[in-house]
Amino acid sequence: MSLMGEKTGECVVCCNRCGGFLMESAITTSYMVCPECGNRVVVCVKNGRVSVFDDTRSEEELAEKRHARLTGYAAKFKKLIK
Questions:
Q1: To the nearest whole percent, how much of the chain has pLDDT over 90?
Q2: Could you give the CA distance from residue 42 to residue 82 in angstroms, rounded to a whole number?
Q3: Which of 9, 46, 68, 81 has the fewest CB within 10 Å, making it most exposed?
Q4: How confident is the prediction for the chain on average, in pLDDT?
Q5: Quick one: average pLDDT of 5-28?
Q6: Mapped to the 3 state alphabet, what secondary structure does the chain carry?
């Protein structure tokens, strides 16, 4: 169940498995874990429509992306310190 607010441009997103509240935002694409059931989901907001899908990425792929993101953060911090 997903709703798009007409006046604010924000959406209310719920888990597609348990119905738990996930977020209220206007983010284009977001990956998250449902706080109610622990299901990994992908939330897409496009042209006023909200879609919620199961996140089918493997643990290895998630670890690689997390490592790349943290490496990028470390490089930015090094630039700030210098």
A1: 15
A2: 37
A3: 81
A4: 78
A5: 68
A6: CEEECCCCCCEEEECCCCCCEEEEECCCEEEEECCCCCCEEEEEEECCEEEEEECCCCHHHHHHHHHHHHHHHHHHHHHHHC
Backbone φ, ψ for residue 51 (5° rounding): -125, 140
The answer to whether 28 touches 45, Cβ cutoff 8 Å, is yes
Phi and psi, residue 34, nearest 5°: -65, 125
**CB count in 10 Å sphere of residue 11:** 20
Among 50, 31, 51, smallest CA distance to 42 is for 31
Q: Per-residue pLDDT tens for 37-51?
A: 888 888 887 777 778
Regarding predicted confidence, which is higher, 7 or 58?
58
Indicate the burial class of 74 (C-beta count within 10 angstroms; 0-12, 13-18, 19 or more): exposed
Tokens of 22: 């996930």
